[in-house]
Amino acid sequence: MSASDRSLSLSAQDPSGNTSWECSSCLGEAPQEFVGFTSCHLSPPVPCRVLPRAMCSGKLQTGLLVGGYFLYLLVGAAVFQALERTAEKQQKMAAAQMKEAFLQNFTHLTVAEMEQFMKNLTVAIQNGVYPVGNESQTENSNWDFSNSFFFAGTVVSTIGYGTLRPKTAGGQIFCVFFALFGIPLNIVFLHRVGKILSLLCKKLGKFLYEKGMRKKIKFLTLLFFLVTGILVFLCLPSLFFQITEGWSYSEGIYFAFITLSTIGFGDYVVGKQPGRIYFSYYRTLVAIWILFGLAWIALLFNLLTTVLEDTEKIIVKDLHQIGKVGEDNAASQPRRCWPVQFIPEEELIPPRGEGDAQKMESSAAEDAQKNGVSSSSF
After folding, report:
1. Confidence class of residue 207 from pLDDT cuts 50, 70 and 90?
2. What is the rounded distance in angstroms from the CA atom of residue 246 to the CA atom of residue 334?
3. What values do phi and psi take at 42, rounded to 5?
């Protein structure tokens, strides 16, 4: 630690011992008037600016983490877009040609040709190509930047809807390495966001404590955390999905929870409704909502896990106490409930220790001596 980071407490006496001074300096250097004195006591260095520096360091780390995380997603989105867009364009052109051929010759198709058409149509839909209306045209790409960013977010968050996935060899290999480093980075990011949310809850608890609500701090803090999170990450987004996607509100709630819990069935996916027009970067905003919603629901699951574990401990403790009380009752039952005549004699006679036996032997010997009987006569 440098001299500028120390807080020094100085006490000095002059040679006569009559005058003493005390001072404190964050610069770590003794004032000149103390030089030459015979005794000078330096207390252990105490950091005087650790808190501000720690706060600045924490903010810097958070900023670098958030910036690096989103930069990682942006780079991944750009690479996926470059690798997959051309192949998707070719698939859409092939699907359009297949649809056109079917419409021209559908009255003359044999059973085998119809079966082949159905197989090709199924493969096209599995690859994200929907030959409905103008959907098979090349201008509407599933691998534009917004969709690519959305896909990158679903990869690092391990949701994996399955409706959008890389088909080229280069895209698949890149996806492996992108997920290999992106998933740990996502865990670190969620951990940092969780710390920020926990800090906000602590500040709320401190505010409630200062307001005199000391007995209900935990309950009110938990209630605020639950209500705010449900409102921000479940209720309001579900209303937004209802308007944008045409789903019912219950379907929006279902999609939001299945997504944030990383279950990701893939039965509901944003931005995939045929015939609907979505605004630019719609799926990018959804991806950002997913990333921050994951941090909230991870804290919620952690909290529920803690509550269940504490409840289990309380139940086990109560069962132990009930068992202990039952054993005590069983041990004391013969003495309390049974009449004296039904209790064995051994239980009626109190146990005697070694001291009592010795006392009985000594008293017996004294009685024998008084009666003139010697122990040798036996």
Report:
1. confident
2. 75
3. -110, 120
